Amino acid sequence: MFASAISLLETARSATVLCHVQPDADTIGSGLAIGTVLARRGVEVQVAFASPSELPESMNELPGRDMLTAPEDVRSRVDLVVTVDAGSRGRLGALADRIDMADACLVIDHHRSNTRFGTLNVVDDGAESTTAVITRLLDAWNVAVDTDLAHCLFAGLVTDTGSFRWVRPGSHLLAERLLATGIDGAAIARKLLDNHPFGWLPMLGSVLGSAALVQDAVGGLGLVYAVILRENSEGMRSEEIESVIDIVRTTSEAEVAAVFKQQSGDEWTVSLRSKTAVDVSTVAATLGGGGHRNAAGFTAHGAKTDVIDLLVDALG
Ligand code: 5GP
Ligand code: MN
């Protein structure tokens, strides 16, 4: 699975590594790890994501962040574009066109809904994180994983596994290998996951205070949801906003959890989580989004109640 990818990576003299919009630690950790390996080989490399304009603060200690390039400065022509943790072209936002200008596009991902939009696609939908796919790729390539690479790779692993709750045989061995390089796993996890300003607590108070349980939704399995209006999220970082779903989804009465995040007047991004019975990536795909079986998302336009109804209908 990795041989053709390695030969693409070995022959490129210039490369752009693209992370997905609204980046998380898996896409940035993956991008910086691949970028670092290429830069060490003498490849001219940029790492970028289309939006927002700033890297989330929780990721500002990841090694290699000097390679991050503002979208408008991303070269138009390179030998190779590598995309990391993006399930579809759309997830690259305004930088998607860089694919068409490159000689080749290598897609590295773990999303079930991946549309295989590269000239070569390394997609393992059983992998814990895209950084886990990359660790296995580096092993096949005989690239030694040092502390800088391990830091980036661990960042994606600890966040995408929900702090090692969603794991499979081999996941802890992977973590062990990365930790054995000498990285401080506790410090990395705290910085990425357990580090919110005090204002997060009153924000949670108002958002969770208006959460709703729709017991007859999802064919009787139940939907729980919360809504984050612009007024709730004002002054909040993406870290605070994206944490809400992790609390909402713990509701025992509901199979599916959703958080509706108002982006502007009538634009909403929606996070979906399921426990076991429902594949939310399929539901999200019918609404123009995608994701994993138990974690997915989409963007919708309309009044709040219409967007909620849209989801309730799609869930059946
Ligand atoms: P989150 O709720 O954390 O934003 O997203 C959960 C999962 O769904 C992530 O793996 C993310 O990549 C995917 N996802 C979220 N929104 C979208 C979207 O609009 N389109 C696609 N294709 N995937 C999405
Ligand atoms: Mn991921």
Describe the structure.
The protein is of the alpha/beta class and 316 residues long. It folds into two domains: 2-193, inorganic pyrophosphatase (n-terminal core), CATH 3.90.1640; 200-315, Diaminopimelate Epimerase, Chain A, domain 1 (Roll). Helix content is 37%, strand content 19%. It contains twelve helices and eleven strands. The protein has helices at residues 3-11, 25-40, 98-101, 130-140, 147-160, 171-179, 185-193, 200-209, 230-233, 238-248, 280-286, 304-315, and strands at residues 14-19, 44-48, 80-84, 104-109, 120-123, 212-214, 223-228, 256-264, 267-274, 290-291, 295-301. A six-stranded mixed β-sheet has the order 6-7-8-9-11-10, sandwiched between helices. β10 and β11 (295-301) form a beta hairpin. α2 packs antiparallel against α5 (147-160), α4 (130-140) packs antiparallel against α5 (147-160) and α5 (147-160) packs across α7. The longest helix has 16 residues, at 25-40. The mean pLDDT is 97.
**Unreliable segments of 5+ consecutive residues:** none
In whole angstroms, how far apart are the ends? 38 Å
- Proportion of strand residues: 15-25%
Assigned CATH superfamily of the largest domain? inorganic pyrophosphatase (n-terminal core)
Mean pLDDT equals 97
Described by strand count, sense and barrel closure, the largest sheet is: 6 strands, mixed
DSSP summary: helix tally: 12
* CATH topology description of the largest domain: inorganic pyrophosphatase (n-terminal core)
CATH architecture of the largest domain: Alpha-Beta Complex
* C-alpha Rg (nearest Å): 19 Å
Instruction: Going across the biggest sheet, name each strand in turn.
Output: 6-7-8-9-11-10
The tally of strands reads: 11
EC number: 3.1.3.7
GO molecular function, one term: 3'(2'),5'-bisphosphate nucleotidase activity
Pfam families: DHH, DHHA1
Domain DHHA1: 223-311
